[in-house]
Amino acid sequence: MTDHSRVLAAAVGEIHGQARPGQQLMAESVADALESGVHLLVQAGTGTGKSLGYLAPALARCVDTDERLIVATATLALQAQLADKDIPTALDAIEEVTGTRPKAAILKGRANYACLYRSRSGGDLDQDSLIGSAALADAVAGSRADDVSKLGAEVLALREWVEEEAERGGLADRDDAPTHTARGWAQVSIPSRECLGVASCPFGAECFVEASREEARGAQLVVTNHALLAINAMHGGTALPEHSALIIDEAHELASRITTAATDELTPSLVERTARRVLSWLDDDLATDFLDQSDVLRAALDESELTRITSASAPLPYAAAQLRDVSRKVVSVLGKVTDDPERQQAGSAVKAIFDVAERIAALADADVVWVTQSEVMGRAALVAPLNVSGLLRNQVFAETTTVLTSATLTLGGAFEPAAAAVGLAGADRLAPGAEPADAFAWSGLDVGSPFDYAQQGILYVAKRLPPPGRDGMHVETLAEVAQLVWAADGRTLGLFASRRAAEQATEYCRRELPGRTILCQGDAQLSELTRRFIAEPETSLFGTLSLWQGVDVPGDTCQLVIIDKIPFPRPDDPLMQARKKAVDDAGGNGFMSVAATHAALLLAQGAGRLIRRTDDRGVVAMLDPRLVTARYGSFLKTSLPGFWMTTDGDLAVRALRRLRGEE
Q1: pLDDT tens digits for 387-430?
Q2: Residues 6+ away with beta carbon under 8 Å from 214
Q3: Concatenated DSSP letters for 305-328?
Q4: Does the pTM of the predicted model rise above 0.70?
Q5: Could you tell me if 27 and 8 are in contact, meaning their C-beta atoms sit under 8 angstroms apart?
Q6: Structural domain boundaries of the chain?
Q7: Rounded to an integer, what distance in angstroms lies between the CA atom of residue 432 and that of residue 442?
Q8: How far apart are CA 397 and CA 373, in angstroms?
Q9: What is the DSSP letter of 416?
C-alpha cells in the first residue's frame, strides 16, 4: 500500500511548504474514508492546504487500486486552479514516491468546448472570403464599426482557432480560445440539448466533447465542477465516467449550485426566437399557433404577481399548458424527418421548451414556480426544485463513496445542517467505533486551521447601533462605517447585503472621507476593482454577494472587513420562502433550517476574508446588533472563525489605528 503521508510530504516539500497537522489529519481521514466507504465531511480551515490534503490520499489510492476518482469543485476557475497548480504538484509527488504517474484529466460541460458542426455550418460572414481574422479585427478596431462587424471579426477568429485545434488534435476548450464575448462563443458552440450526437453528426469522429470524455475515461483522476456533477446526477450518470469515489471541494456551495443547474427559465422572447427558427418546417396553422404562444406567455406573465405561483388556475400554469400542447405537436412534426441536422437541432430546442412548459404547468409539489422581472430581460417564469437533498442522496451518496470538504462546513458548531442540505440525515452519522449500517453512513471531522484567530483578529459587534431596517442604512450606521474606514486608513472590504446599501455607504464615505479612495461594485468590472483593491492598500472596496466568497486578499491591503447586516435570504425570495414553509409544515423550524443556516454560511465566508495567512491581522466589524441580541445570534456566532469578540467600538477603532502605527 502506498504511504499517502510520504506523498503528502513530498508535495509539501515541492512547494517549499511546512508540515501542517491539520493537513496531515485530513489526508489520513480521507484515506480512511476511501478505504471504508463511509462518507466524510471534513472542514479544513483557510490555510490548511486542503487540496493537497485530499489529492495525496486520492492519488495513492489510484496507484494501489487502479480505480478512477472524481474531484468536483465549485467553479470553472477553481477547476483550472487545481489543474494548473495543485494537481501537477501532487502528480510530481506521487511519481517521486512510487515511480508511477497516474493520468489526470479535466472534464467540463458541453458548452465549454467548441462544436465543429456549429463552427463549420454556421454560415459565412461577408468578410470571410476576403481577409483573415487578424486583418478584419484591425480594420474594425479603430473605427466606429457596428456591433455586427465586431462580432463578425470575433467569430472569424474563433473559427480559425477551432480549425487549428482540430488540426493539432486539441480540445477547443473555451478557456484557451481567443478573446471573445458570450455572443461570439455562441456561434461556435452548442447547447447540450441541440447536440446531434456523435453517430448523427457529420463531424462526430472529430468531436471535441467526445475527445474530452475519452481523455477522462483514460484517466485515473478526473477533475470536474459542481454543475457537471449535477447534470450527471440528473441524467442517470451519463456525464461522468465510472468512478469508485468522489471528492467534492468547496462543498458548502454544492446545494446552491445543484439547485441552479436544476432550475429552468421560460421567457416570451425564447419562445418567439425558437418559433421563428422552425416556421419553414410547419404548416401555416401550426406555425401561427406556435408563434402566438409567445404573446400568450407574455400576457400571462404580465397578469402574474412577482411571487410564487401555487394555483393551477393562475394565468401562468394555464399558458404553460397551452405552450406544452402546441410545442408537443411541433416536436412531433419536426421529428418526422431525421436526416436534416438543422431540423433535428431545431426540434431539440423546441423539446427543451416543451419540457420546461410541462414542468411549469404541472406545479408539482417537488417544484417551486415563480415569476421574476429584470430591466434587461423583462418578465420570466422560473421553476426550481424545492430541495436537492433527495437527488444528491439517491444519485450521489447511494452510488459512490463521497468526501465533502470546505473551510465552512460546520454551521452553529455542527456538521448536521450542511449534511442535511445535501441529503445526509443526522441519524446517518456514524458513532465512533460503530460499523456503517447502510450506504448513507457518514462522519464529520474539523481539522482546524493553522491560524490563531483569537490572536489575529477581533470580531466587533456594534451592539449600540439600531437594527437594520428596510428603508436603507441608518445614519448612525453610515457614520460607523466612515469612522472604521478612517481608523483603518482605507484597507477595508465592505460586504453589504444589497447593492443599494453598498452605494449608500460609498456615497457617504466619499463625502466624509474625501482623501480616501472608495471603490464600489458597479464602478467597473469586478476583476478590475479587485485588482486595484489588492494593489492599493489605502483603497477600500464595497460590494455585495460577489465579494462575500472567493476574494482572497492577504496582507495589509485588507485589515478591516465590514458586514452591514446578517445576510438572511430576501423575504421576497420565492424559493427560500417555499423551502422554509416546507420545513415548518413538516414540523421543523424553517427559520433556523433555511434562513439562519443560509445566513450562517455567508457570514462564515464573509468573515473569512480577513485572515488569509499567518501574519494577517485585523477587525471584522458586524454592524448588525442582532448577532448578540437575538436568540439565533449564538447559532450564527459559533459558525464564525474564533475571533476575540467585543461590542466596544472605541476598542475596535484603537486596534485599527495600532495596526497602522498610530497608537
Answers
A1: 999 999 999 999 999 999 999 999 999 999 999 999 999 999 99
A2: none
A3: -SSB---TTSHHHHHHHHHHHHHH
A4: yes
A5: yes
A6: 4-103+219-259+389-446, 110-209, 264-385, 453-659
A7: 11
A8: 36
A9: H
